[in-house]
Amino acid sequence: MTKLVGTPDEDWLDMSPFVVHFSKPSGKRTAYDNCLSILAARRIEARAPFGIGKDYDASPKSACFSEIPLHYLKRLADVRGSYGIGFRKEFLIGRDGGPIMYAYKDTMHAKAMRKMVSSAHGNPKDPIWKVAPFVDQPGSYGTKSYFYEWEREWRHIGDLDFHQNDAAFLIIPEDLHSAARGFFNDAEYENLGPNFKCPFIDPYWDAAKVKIALNEAQS
After folding, report:
1. Which residue in 45, 73, 113, 166 has the most C-beta neighbors within 10 A?
2. pTM above 0.85?
3. Cβ neighbours, 10 Å, residue 131
4. Where would I find the H helices in the chain?
5. Where do the domains of the chain lie?
6. Residues 161 and 42 sit within 8 Å (Cβ to Cβ)
7. What average pLDDT score do residues 52-67 get?
């Protein structure tokens, strides 16, 4: 895969060449259950609309990712769980995904975006719906506030289908790495499901351990 112009040097620890998607608990299903479903189906489902036009019926659903540096994955794991999947940024960009932008509440560009979104109400074919999911509006809303820039969020409109070889790594607690490797090997051998042969990363590892895991996969 061609390296993107501007891709950060591997020693720039404040940036990442990867995006990650964490599974979350839902109903009676744990984050582990939902992660297994994603990996078995090789699909991350777009479950809800996001962005500046999310309250309009025409707003499409999106799948969410983060480009947070891998040695800070604990910030996401603390609120979502310890299971997920990572891709290189090039993979998501090649499927029309990308980083979101911020139009702070009540700024002139936020007002301009909201006006365009309002004008497209009821028209899902309006091109604004290819942009609106990628624009968030941080700010205070009554007793609540929305400030999540630290997540460095990326999105993909619609479900994201992938092949197991597209995965750059899986996010799994370290004490389950051996069992997970055996599970995927058995699934391939018995023709029951895909085998993810990529590296496994614990979301609570430091930068050194993450680098070792990624380097071992390339050797």
Report:
1. 73
2. yes
3. 16
4. 31-41, 74-80, 89-93, 108-119, 177-189, 207-218
5. 18-100+151-218
6. yes
7. 96
